[in-house]
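Holo prediction — nicotinamide-adenine-dinucleotide.
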Amino acid sequence: MARHLLVTGGAGFIGSNFIHYILRERPDWRVTNLDLLTYAGNLENLRDIEGSSNYRFVRGDIGDRQLVDALLGGDDWFGPVDTVVNFAAESHVDRSILDPSPFVDTNVRGTQVLLEAARQAWLGAGVEGGRRDVEHRFVHISTDEVYGSLGPDDPAFTEENRLEPNSPYAASKASSDLLCRAYFKTFGLPVTVTRCCNNFGPYQFPEKLIPLFVTNALEGQPLPVYGDGMNVRDWIYVDDHSSAVLAVLERGRPGEVYNIGSDSEVPNIEMTRAILRILGKPETLIRYVAGRPGHDRRYAIDASKIRAELGWQPAYRFEDALERAVRWYVENPEWWQRVRSGEYRRYYESQYGARLG
Ligand code: NAD
Ligand code: TYD
C-alpha cells in the first residue's frame, strides 16, 4: 500500500535521516514533513530532496491544532494522511535541565494534540466508527531514557521494565508514551510506540556527544567528558533506527511498544577515545568536567521483541558505522560550521521568508 506519511520533526537529526531512508526504500510513498524549525531543525538536511514530487515541507508546531487538523483532514493530490510518525520533540537532556517548560509543551502537549487530531480524522469523534477500509498507523518515537538508569549488572531494558524517567526530558517522553497508550486503550487509535537507544550519524546537532566531540576535535577544542566518563550508552546507527521504524509502521501491532537497539554498549570515555583515534587527534584534548545533575549511569536495550516479532535486525556493525559517521562530519565541514555559527538560519529566511525567533 502506497502510504502518505505525516512525519513530524523531519528537519531534525533522526527525522531527516528517516525521510531520506523512506524516499529511498518506498519511492511511491508521499511524505509531508511538519517541523517548527526550532534551533534543532535544519532544512539543509533535506536540500537534496527539495522539489521532489512526493515530498513537501510545512513549517509549524505539532501543538497547533488547526494546522494539524488541516494536514490530517486534507485530501489534495498527496491524498489523505494515513500514517503519522512523530519525531518532533525537544530532545536534549542538558537543555531540559536548564528549562523543562518547552519539553512539556512539545513532547507532552504537542503529542496529545497530534493524537487527538488523528482520532478525530481517523475515527470520528466517537469511540467506535471511522474508516475501517484505510489502514491507519500512528508511530510515536520514544527513547530508552524513559526506563531510567541501570546498574552495571542489571539486564538490559525490555518493554516490561517500569517507566522511571530521571531527567525532565525523559519524564516528558514517558508522559507522551502514556498518552499514546491511553489513546489506544480508550479510543482504539492504532498507536505504536518505539523506544530506541542513542543514535548517531549525519546531520546530528552538535550539542549531542558524538557530533560535539568530533567537531570540537576538528577545531582543536577540548572535549568535555562529564563525571568519570564511565556512564554507558547503547548506540545505534541512525539508518538502523529508520529501518526499525519502517518495520514497525508496516508490521507492528497497534497498542504495542517496541524497543530498538543493536547491542553496542560503550562507556563515554571509550567513545571519546575512539573518536580521537579515528580523527588522529591527541587524547590531551580530553577534559573531565562536572557531571550533569541526575546523570543516568547506564542504558542498555534488549531488542529481542522487534527482532523476533518483526524479523528486524540492524545492518551496521558499530565500529564501521562510527567511522562512517565521523567521516561524514570530516567531509561536510560547511554543514556543521554553519550550524555551530548559527548561520544556517539564514538559509530558511532566504527560502521561506520566515522570521525565526
Ligand atoms: P532533534 O532535536 O535533532 O530534532 C527535533 C526536531 O523536532 C527539530 O527539527 C525541531 O525543529 C522539531 N520540533 C521541535 N519542536 C517542535 C514542535 N513543537 N513542532 C514541530 N516540530 C518541532 O531530535 P532527534 O535527535 O532527531 O530526535 C527525534 C526523536 O527521536 C525525538 O522524539 C527523540 O526523543 C527521539 N529519540 C532520539 C534519540 C537520539 O539519540 N537522538 C534516541 C531515541 C529517541
Ligand atoms: P547525549 O549525547 O547528550 O545523549 P543522552 O544524554 O540523551 O544519552 O550524551 C551522551 C552521553 O555523553 C551522556 O552520558 C552524557 C555524556 N556527555 C558528555 O560527557 N559530555 C558532553 O559534552 C555531552 C553533550 C554528553
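READOUT: Residues 8-9, 11-15, 34-38, 40-41, 61-63, 87-89, 91, 106, 110, 141, 143, 173, 196, 198-199, 205 surround nicotinamide-adenine-dinucleotide (ligand 1) (CB under 6 Å).
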